[in-house]
Amino acid sequence: MATRYEWQTIGGAARVVRRVTSEGARDRFAYDFDSQTSEVSDVFGNAAHWQYDEQGRVLSHTDFDGRRYRFGYDAAVAPVTLQLPGEREVRIEYDALGRVACETDPQGATRSTQYAFASREPVSVALSDGRAWMWARNDRLQPLHYQTPSGEFTRFEYGEAGDVVRSTDALGTVTTFAHNAWGQVTRRTEVGGRTTRYEYDVNGYVVSVTDALGAVTRIARDGLGRPLTITRPDGQAERHGWNAAGQRTSFVGPSGRSRHWYRDRRGNVLRAVDEEGHVIVRRYDAHGRPVRIEGANGAVQVLRWNASSCLSISDADGVQRCFDYAASGQVRCLTWKAGEQQRCETFDYDRAGRLTQRETAHNRYIYCYGPGGLLDGVIREPTPEGELLGIGADEIRFEHDAGGRLIAEHGANGTLRYTYDAAGRVVATQLPQGQELRTRRFETGDIAFIELGERQIARFWYDAVRRPVARAQGRLRTHTGFSPLGLPVWWRSVTGRDVATPGSATESVTELWREADYSPADLIVRTGGESDGQMWYDYDRRGCLLRSVSENGDIEYFTWDAAGNLLDTPGGSWFPAVYPDHRLRECRGHRYDYDVWGQLVRRSGRDHTLSLDWDAEGRVIAAHRNGYTCAHWPTARAARDAPKNSGRGCPRRYAVFDKAD
């Protein structure tokens, strides 16, 4: 992209008066020294303004979208108050060295920072709710240990050259590092002796990685460090192409199939071509924002913008989303339009910018926060329209510890409580019925056991690169084998009383087994199993399944459009239907009907007709089959009233959800 500037001598100095880019952007600059203001207008007629004081400091700024920012100063050069759009103010205090010592947000919450010596490296960061992060540093200002608000402690040790040679986490787990003469990590050894090795080229870029099992990944780079060829542990290679700006323009996978990206001079993707030659076309405005996206199946999405934000998105199915913004720049109202119908979703925020209320046609959600800004609860209240659908009020409350970790959730169906270990990982969950689900872990952090009460319900084993190679549930133990790339290639399940050791699954004791083969593109091309026999799979060049063949000769075909949507297999003409709105009308003996919002409301065909009811938030609330309501999803209160609400001759099954979603 080329940018051209025009200069003039104004006020005794050379100043830019015009800027033009090769992509159509045009900005004009105006200066008024008497009023100490300057102005920039863009190609769309939007203007931004700046007001200065006698020292050249910015007093106020009005952005292209009309939002205004004000800056207040005292003896410091940097601002001490910042007035944001939406009548919000941030206050800043500095220490004697001009470093930010305290920040006060629009809600009055503070963040205080102390620094090491005369540096800008922090030794403590404290919030007004009592949470604090702390560092201890050496003479080089490197951290010796770091502590989080929940008490988790990490220690670091350094070699003579100043490189980290050892780190110890809150559980005492040690990781060691070895470095070369340039300070680059050449070896990383974790608990259990698992070691990863790194090699570098003369420019300092990683060119080889060897994992704990000896699998090697090699990277060939250009002079700027961009990967040109990556050779995987199985010997297959993928290739990458780049333009002069360092943006990827092509990718050739191990199968030899390629993708291409054609860009404008800004670097925006104009055309994306997949392995089958399908093209996605994008158009941008003079500021580089997308205004039209045309899919490979003819689907078109159109976007409109104001000076800074998206105003609307019109999708291929005719549904339009319109956005209205508050003075703070946050979305205030989202309006969905489809034909003559429309529905709105509104949002309210507090002075700190946190969402406090969200209202749809069927529900109103209220979000409550604690003194530390953490979410304390969500209340759902149905609107009159929502009550007609059987939606009732609901509430969920959250508890946090001093470190801000979630320790309890309270809802209509009881309470969930969480316990953490010293490293901050969940180790126990108390269920509403009083049972406790415990998770025991190895030193690496991987799950070793899952226990419910006093009963062990699952156990896991891992290999040197932490892949799950075996798991046991009761008397059933399942083993998994992996390829050099980490893809699962076989499964063996055995039963017996001795499940305490992983062992290996042998043919004599194997009761269930399954295996899989992969293509160079990492797609499954064959599966085999004792009960199902063998299956073979064919794909197109982009990876969409075309055909599956069983060992009995049964064949199933699949057809896809250019956008990757599954289509009905074409008949004698072999010309598949095209659905640029992404709404499938017919497939495999079924017909599908949609409402104006694109939601499936009816499926009919060779078996019973299924109808679905939706709420205004895009969730299924009822399913009907042949005139009967076979499933209904009300809230907790409506479920408790189910026996007196269900009508005669209309069997109804209720499913109750704990939370608002």
Automatic annotation (TrEMBL):
The keyword RNA-binding does not apply. Keywords: Repeat. Residues 48-164 form the Teneurin-like YD-shell domain. InterPro entries: RHS_repeat, T6SS_VgrG/RHS, TEN-like_YD-shell, YD. The keyword Repeat applies. Pfam families: RHS_repeat, TEN_YD-shell. This is YD repeat-containing protein. The lineage of its organism: Bacteria, Pseudomonadati, Pseudomonadota, Betaproteobacteria, Burkholderiales.
